[in-house]
Amino acid sequence: MLFRRNKSDETPPDAPIAHGVSTGDDHQPISEGDRKFVSILLDESGSMDQLLEPTISGFNEYLAELQADPNAELVRFSMTTFHSQSFNRRTVNAPLKGAKQLDARTYRPRARTPLYDAIAKTIVDLEQHTKGADDPDVVVTILTDGYENASTAYQASEIRSLINAKQEQGWTFVYLGANQDAWAVADTIGIPRGAAALYDSSDLGARNAWKQTSYATRRRWANSERRSEVFQENLTHAESGRLKHQEH
Q: Most buried of the four, 54, 91, 153, 169, by CB within 10 Å?
């Protein structure tokens, strides 16, 4: 029941992928090494326009750091941007090394923030991507500068149920928010407060948000340690130290 579709969605799960994005083959058998999955859900609503350049450059630096990691060959990567007019799958379950950077053509903030609907679609996509993977290692990072204000298919309680179910399967969710009580929002949708952080709505703040999740993700791979609480510790102790965390 929770995975229902809204007929008004402009980009349903089986919609064609936008021109120019990198994709993987969901029907290709998962290889022995394809057990690590990283998914980015990036707010593309109008308020993100004030952080356009640092969001683009911060994501590109994040992606480059992940691609340079020794474990990169073992990772499938997805990246989606969203606003109330569209759900844009920019990279779809592609080998990490083949993921493409953002630019002003592929990231154009506008409209409102259907956060709950976007999270649900991302989970549905990842369920398809991880089919056939033996005990997949999944990290989902959500980055937004505003509150939910435009979802039509899902409510907070339903998203909480979806996220809790996936966390019980070993998935890790990270919530990075600006201009809000990031910990309260994370708690509302089932993400542990230790996996949430408030970043400054500034050039430096946006870049540091990407640096911190890059650091925590790469530490996870290096140590082969998948417990969410360890990811949370790495997020907290990332080298930039610029994000604001709440003890839990």
A: 91
* Helix-, strand-, coil-residue percentages of the chain, each rounded to 5: 40, 20, 40
What are the residues facing 94 on neighbouring strands? 77
Q: What is the distance between the terminal CA atoms of the chain, rounded to a whole angstrom?
A: 32
Q: Which of 147, 204, 209 is nearest to 180 (CA)?
A: 147
H or E element in which residue 187 lies:
helix 182-188
- With cut-offs at 50, 70 and 90, classify the pLDDT of residue 223: confident
Strands 75-83 and 36-43: parallel
Query: What domains does the chain contain, in order, with CATH numbers?
Result: 33-236 (3.40.50.410)
Q: Residues near 30 by Cβ (< 8 Å), separated by ≥ 6?
A: 130, 131, 132, 133, 134
Q: pLDDT by residue (tens digit) across 61-116? A: 999 999 999 999 999 999 999 999 999 999 999 999 999 999 999 999 999 999 99
